[in-house]
Specification:
The complex is a heterodimer of chains A (136) and B (139). By secondary structure, chain A is an all-alpha fold. Chain A is built from 5 helices and no strands. In chain A, helix 4 (70-99) packs across helix 5. The relative contact order of chain A is 0.13. In chain B, helix 1 (11-40) runs antiparallel to helix 2 (47-72) and helix 3 (76-105) packs across helix 4 (116-136). The chains are: A mainly alpha (136), B mainly alpha (139). The A-B interface holds A 28, 32, 42-43, 45-50, 53-54, 57-58, 61, 64, 77, 80-81, 84-85, 87-89, 91-100, 102, 105-112, 115 and B 38, 48-49, 51-53, 55-56, 59-60, 63-64, 66-67, 70, 83, 86-87, 90-91, 94-95, 97-108, 111-118, 121.
Chain lengths: 136, 139
Amino acid sequence: MLPNPAMKRYNSRMVRLWLVYAAFLLVAIYMFKHQLLSGPVAYGVAVLPAIPIILVFATVGRYLIEESDEYLRMLMVRQTLWASGFALSLATIWGFLESFDLVDHVDAYYIAIVWFLGLGVGAVINRLTLGSTVKC
Amino acid sequence: MFAAKQSDFTPAQRAHVRRTLWLLLVYAVILPPLVWIRANIPVAGYIPVLMAIVASLPVLGIFASWGRYLSDERDEYHQSLTLRRNAVATNATMGAAVAWGFLQAFGVMPLIETYWVPFVWVVIQGLFGCLTLFSRGEA
């Protein structure tokens, strides 16, 4: 199946956002490593790499709005629901393991990484239950 | 406007509310003894891990109940409202988690338990529901 216009825009936005993320992350790491920051500026630069990832989530939402094929939109909605359930469930279990002092604390952005893995889980479930998945 | 009668709810919504209340009751019943045992009785091996997983099961059940509600709901309007609320809550929660995660990674904010992320998700869903209720009379 060839990508439709909504998919093409989604892919193009994703590539640009991940490139921006890589650039912002390198800048932030360099500045913190060389201790160039202090005060409120440090908070601003620490949040800098998070901005493109937040926009990645917005891009998924925008794809859902722009996708005119109802079947593809339904597949993507199912994938995102599985991703949310997967990420929030793992966060809950890990959180209780942390509070019982059984595992170390992790940086909260790992939840987002798990969410992206959850999209893959949703794609597999779509494939197994409906026979197809979104190929962005 | 705010006095919701039982007939205001669809059958799927009633089932979801009933499941959620039961799960919250189970959560309230099992969590205090588990926390007490962990704090006062030395348990080793896999038992503390099992205790932590048992404590999280009712919360996981609530997420599953949301999924089942979306599957059971026959009213497409209510289904789309719930999907929209879920999408807003997920985007806002994941955005907050990513921003907080980088603040943690660069050492400017403390590490927190990850169960705060689902907590934020639930709170945002509630806030969004209230906002919609106030603005358009339908949540």
